Structures are given as C-alpha cells and as structure tokens.
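Risk mitigation, structural track. In case the binding assays with SN-glycerol-3-phosphate fail to produce interpretable data, a predicted complex structure has been prepared as a fallback.
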Amino acid sequence: MLVLIDDANLEAIKRIYEFYPCDGVTTNPSILKKQGENPMEVLKAIREFLPDGAQLHAQVVSLTAEKMIDEAHHMLEVLGKDTYIKIPVTSEGIKAMKLLSKENANITATAIYTSMQAFIAAKAGARYTAPYVNRLDNMGADGVQVAKDIHDMFKMHGLNADVLAASFKNSQQVLNLCKYGIGSITAAPDVIEGLIKHDATANAVEVFTKDFYSLVGEGNTMENL
Ligand code: G3P
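Fallback model:
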C-alpha cells in the first residue's frame, strides 16, 4: 500500500519523510490555502524536495473540461514527471479525464463520495480515485466500506485503477483499508505519526534502556562495549 502525505507544508513533509516510508504528497486547494503563499511556488518547492519517482498530486480548480485540461497541461509542464492531476468527479471533470487520459496523463479523480463516481472516473481513465473516508463517516455513511467497494469493483471489472483513500482522522480507518489490500492512502502528518504511536512501546523501550544501563553503566550502548 502506498502511503502519501496529505499536506503542503514543506517542513511537515520533510519531517515525515525523515522518519517514515512515504511515496509522495497529495494536496488540494484548501490544503494549499493554509500555506498562504503562491500555490504553484509551494508545489514547485515540494517537487524539488521529493525524491525521484515520488508522486505529487495537485488539483485543478477550473470548472469546465477545456479549462481543466489547459490547467493540467501547465501543471504537468511546471511540476514534471510523476505529477498526478487531481480532477473532481463532476460531469466536466469526467469529460476532462476522458480527454486527458488519451494523452497518457496521470489522473487522480477526487472529491469522491460514492463508489459509482469512482467507477465512472476509472472508466474515463483515472489512475487513482480518492474516496473521502472520514468525511463520509461524518455524513453517517461508512467511508471504509465505500473504499473497499471501489477496490472490489475495480478488480471485478479489470479496471487499471486503484483506490487512493483520503480524508482520514484515525489509525483504525487506515488499518481497516490496509488489511483489505487497498492500493494507496493519503493522510495528514499527524495521522501518519499516529500509525505507530503506542504507549506500551514507549514503556517497553524505557524499561529496556534502564535494565541495560544498570548492567553496563548509564549512557553506554552496544557501541562502546
Ligand atoms: O485530498 C482530500 C482530503 O485531503 C480531504 O481530507 O481531512 O479535508 O477531509 P479532509
């Protein structure tokens, strides 16, 4: 399962990249707004930092297919390879996906709230589809189940598309999708950090360290023995 960072703050992205295995970064216009800077400059700085082969997902904001395609061409030119153009699953968006996929552009269908939206986007040529898991949960639906249904439908119909599940608020949502074999998730830095946090682990490490120091003296490690 690919793990992407859903953020545009370069310091936060660098911190997560330093400690955790990651496959790229996803953004949307609201995430970029939080930076309060020229969004294209923010995206360029993220691209410069990312290692070769890492994915960068960035969204168009135009409302017509023709304008979305113009935007996508510009974004691909500026942000280079391994850039995924995020397009919302409106009717204009689906049209843009159909046309852009003919150029072999990487497309991520976004703002997905139903499994049918994902299916149609995949048929239109989207490589990834992003159901909003936690937003669905907040609406009284089952976000994890929607992501699982999309995954199953892609397999059943032999579509060359994956789920890129988005909008997480806790580890349990991520775990449920990981256990199901979902292709990729994107989560905010605090959710990614939460994936491994456990008080029992911290306590175990504390006891191991104390025991070792009582044996060989405070501050010594295997390195000095
Ligand atoms: O990219 C979509 C995703 O970021 C939405 O997440 O946390 O705003 O529901 P959230």
